Amino acid sequence: MKATKVWISAAILLLLLAIVSAPLASAQNMKTLGNMDVHYMAIGATFLTPQVAKAYGIERSKYNALINISVLDNTQQGKPAKAVSISGTALNLTGQYKRLDFEEVREGQAIYYLAQLNYRDKEKVKFELTITDGSETHELVFDQTFYVD
Q1: Per residue in 81-139, pLDDT tens?
Q2: Which of 132, 67, 124, 133 lies closest to 100, judged by CA?
Q3: Cβ-count burial of 67 within 10 angstroms (0-12 exposed, 13-18 middle, 19+ buried)?
Q4: Strand runs (DSSP E) across 3-148, as ranges?
Q5: Distance between CA atoms of residues 17 and 40, nearest Å
Q6: Are 125 and 142 spatial neighbours (Cβ–Cβ below 8 Å)?
Q7: From CA 59, how far away is CA 26, in angstroms rounded?
Q8: Where are the domains of the chain?
């Protein structure tokens, strides 16, 4: 049992590192908003392994997306993770809004905010997020088109 927990924790940590590293490689998935460097991505949940999806309570379906936001404090050396409050909506081309419910996940020094969203094949979604750290509030807007695997 203990070896299984260690393996799942290691797998989760590797996934989360990959999620954060992917935006670092592409400037289009990072925006500087005041004292926050906000890394964001939205992917189909089937990219997650079944073990990772289960560990985080994420529905692993070809019609379900995972939205991942991480915020770094760009005023401090090393840019440590920053705890924030995130709210937002997803809007599709037919005008349907869905409120996103972000859950905070902490793994060591890392902090992630995860939300889920159902989608249809080739659906373009506009994300409108409000991010606040207690002293600053900023808006993050981005689009993502989802495809069914």
Answers
A1: 999 999 999 999 999 999 999 999 999 999 999 999 999 999 999 999 999 999 999 99
A2: 67
A3: buried
A4: 30-33, 36-44, 64-73, 85-92, 97-100, 103-107, 110-118, 123-132, 137-146
A5: 13
A6: no
A7: 27
A8: 2-146
Evaluate whether the domain defined by 2-146 bears CATH number 2.60.130.10: no
C-alpha span between 32 and 72 (Å, rounded): 9
Q: What pLDDT, in 10s, does the model give residues 46-55?
A: 999 999 999 9
**Pick from 30, 15, 107, 104: which is nearest to 74 by CA?**
30
Outline where the chain has alpha helix (H): 2-25, 50-56
Q: Which of 27, 28, 30, 66 is nearest to 46 (CA)?
A: 66
Determine the 3-state secondary structure of 45 from DSSP.
helix
Query: Which residues on adjacent β-strands are paired with residue 99?
Result: 89
Evaluated on CA atoms 118, 121, 125, 127, the torsion sign reads positive
Give the residue from 27, 2, 8, 15 showing the smallest Cα distance to 142: 27
